[in-house]
Design goal:
By secondary structure, this protein is of the alpha/beta class. The protein is built from 14 helices and seven strands. The chain has a seven-stranded parallel beta sheet with strand order 3-2-4-1-5-6-7, sandwiched between helices. Helix 1 packs across helix 2, helix 1 packs parallel to helix 3 and helix 13 packs antiparallel against helix 14. It binds guanosine-5'-triphosphate and magnesium ion (MG).
Amino acid sequence: MINNLIEGLKIGDRKHLSRAITLIESTLTSDKLLANQLLENVIHLTGNSIRIGITGPPGVGKSSFIEVFGEYITSLNKKLAVLAVDPSSKISKGSILGDKTRMENLAVNPLAFIRPAANHAQLGGIAEQTFETILLCEAAGYELVVIETVGVGQAEIEVNNLVDYNIFLHQIGSGDELQGIKMGVLEHADLIIITKADGTNLDQAIFTQNQLKYVLHSNSQKDKNIEVFSIFEPQKMADIWAIIIKEINLLKKDGHFDSQRLMQKENLFYEKLKLSIIEKFLAENRIKIEDIFVKFKTGEINLNSALQKLI
Ligand SMILES: Nc1nc2c(ncn2[C@@H]2O[C@H](COP(=O)(O)OP(=O)(O)OP(=O)(O)O)[C@@H](O)[C@H]2O)c(=O)[nH]1
Ligand SMILES: [Mg+2]
């Protein structure tokens, strides 16, 4: 079964890719062994894509942007995978169903693959197996892997650990345009795009673009690109792609692309190690922990000695 999966993946078959992702998302111990076997067999085929993060608040237009982006990319005869990670909807699948309908054309495009990531999101962030899912997409020959993430909690910062290039989408609203965005989020973005720049929004979008340029450029972020976009002007995607590819090529040329990936690997390794240690410790010491917690709760011992007794 596993050999079949490996062969299917290598020739880029979407059904096999889907099944491979399901396997690495499985929490069954027997599946985990197969998943490792699978990854080991295709690891030499990974790493060759450009990994792009699309982040922004709910409803800002991420899926709509990706639909237009995907159509453009596939028109260049490149294969594109979209992984929608939604840390906010652990139970409801509302947003994910919405994504399917908002990427209607992409969903039936033979050069595209759309997959909502499983919601075993850790600590309110990115789903646990997203990194491995990216590797599988690369093994299946996808040249671009796009990760859509709702910007809640630390997700938009965490996505930096997975992607080469991070695009933050911002939507104008009423009142003070800059009030709602955190500076840190903007600083982590490689490109900022103000969405829905059409109709009565257009003037305000351009105003916000200038405002953001002013703020960022006076914050020693001189080179940051800030663009406006509307899905009703899909031809503008060529300019946006030109910006992205130019910056990616610069990153590759000066070595940043590779060093960033190495740093991401290091972060992922230690993050996962920490989580595994915590999980193992909690599982192995459940009764002892409860026991000491009761003592701490009732005031029998203080916090420090409670922790010392445990570790
Ligand atoms: N006028 C206008 N509306 C847009 C544009 N892009 C997206 N929208 C609308 O904005 C709404 C939200 O768009 P989505 O693409 O689903 O936004 P999202 O960020 O993916 O939303 P979530 O995944 O739920 O967080 C939809 O009703 C879109 O039709 C645009 O360029 N112009
Ligand atoms: Mg969406």
